[in-house]
Amino acid sequence: xxxxxxEIDGPGAHPAxxxxxxxxxxxxxxxxxxxxxxxGFVLVTLADAxxxxxxxxxxxxxxxxxxxxxxLAPTLHVTTTEPFHLATQLASLDHASQGRxxxxxxxxxxxxxxxxxxxxxxxPDALRREVADVVEVNRALWDSWEDDATIRDVATGRFLxxxxxxxVNFTGDTFSIVGPLITPRPPxxxxxVLGADTLGVTGxxxxxxxxxxxxxxxAAARAAGAPLVFAEVEVLIDESGERRDTADSWAPSDRLRHxxxxxxxxxxxxxxxxxxxxxxxxxxxxxxxxxxxxxxxxADTLPxxxxxADxxxxxxxxxxxxxxxxxxxxxxxxxTVGEATP
Length: 342
Known about the structure:
Residues 304-325 are annotated as: Disordered. Residues 17-196 form the Luciferase-like domain. The protein is of the alpha/beta class. It has helices at 26-39, 56-64, 83-96, 124-142, 214-223, 244-248, 262-272, 286-296, 298-301, 320-324; strands at 3-7, 43-46, 71-77, 102-106, 150-153, 158-160, 170-171, 176-177, 192-196, 207-210, 228-237, 256-260, 278-283. It has an eight-stranded parallel beta barrel, surrounded by six helices. The chain has a two-stranded antiparallel ribbon with strand order 5-6. Helix 1 runs parallel beside helix 8, helix 2 (56-64) runs parallel beside helix 3 and helix 3 (83-96) packs across helix 4 (124-142).
């Protein structure tokens, strides 16, 4: 099975995509997420409001109670958000969505992006260490509450077992955190972490995102320890050639790119399925390409059980980890560590 994810933020991946979508209109992102959910996509991602508007984590939280099956993964940057607040925000997203939270690791490192933080851009090695530190401390903080730490015993007035809430005592190059987190452990145990293989932290990811020479980079990501690998594919659906001018003005990128029919895109995904576990699609124009993808693609790509049985949305259909086939990790601080829950 090839899992499908889709980026739903903003007007689209093409720089000339029509700016007809109001970045401050919450109904825009809801419509896009529900299109993908009803079609059977496993995951939607939300970029960091490149076109302006509300922060990606806020929009993902808004979607948590307005979707029911699909995973929700905002891009949040390790360089511009305090690690403790980042871990709290993502744990809260997982609770609000009943275990459908994800995180696309971002690492903005320009003077403009860092202007409000008072920081200077980091050298490549320092940036890689910071990304690694923030991912590691997030994972430690998500484990800082054991699964059974919450008691809620009204008779005795005990809310939690303090012996099952732990300090993480993490010290990195640029920050230190004592912990614990201020929210219980996420329903998934660990939020699903996605990131580009170019970040240099592939072994810390749940899903490595690869472009370019997909076969070679997927093999390298697996060798580095990534459980799953998704190919990055930009998509412009053009069945008749009427959008050729748009395609011709699209500058190259590190992602694969498909311009053409849905049938040809299916063939591409089938070929990629030999080397990757999934594909993250980036519609050229969200308002145009996403409805076409949602209507025509997943039914032939995803297994029948992943598709909705009717027009209604069930209350839940499992966590994002379960849909991806990822185990629920054991808690690193638990006194007795049993087998991870599948």
